[in-house]
Amino acid sequence: MPLLLKSCPNLQTLVFKGLIHRVTNRCGDACACNPGQKKRKRMKKLKEVCCLQTCRVKVLEISDCGGCFQELKQMIHFLDNLECLEILKVGVDPNKNSELVRANVMPLPRLSSKCTIQFI
């Protein structure tokens, strides 16, 4: 994903179908998983050079969200680094407890003061 974001500087909308993925050594800095043994060093480095910090995305849409820890962790990573984000649209998996997902997502901190969260 870092390559995509760097090669599309005018990208304004990013859409994901779920946030669960298989962790590999090629996840990149757009991912919150940080595979490998030197996790703390990578986290520190991520904060300095994350490709999301230069990304101009205004709308982030995530469908089929189940509200698990890994999904919330990835959402936090996006919200902490997408400075221009105005709308986070979250589609809740119909088989999951939508009220629990809402309760976990709404209080997440956001870098952008303009960012609102919508459930679709």
UniProtKB/TrEMBL annotation:
Q: Which residues form the FBD domain?
A: 50-120
Against PANTHER family, the record matches this protein to: RNI-LIKE SUPERFAMILY PROTEIN
Q: Can you say what this protein is called?
A: FBD domain-containing protein
Q: Which organism is it from?
A: Brassica cretica (Mustard)
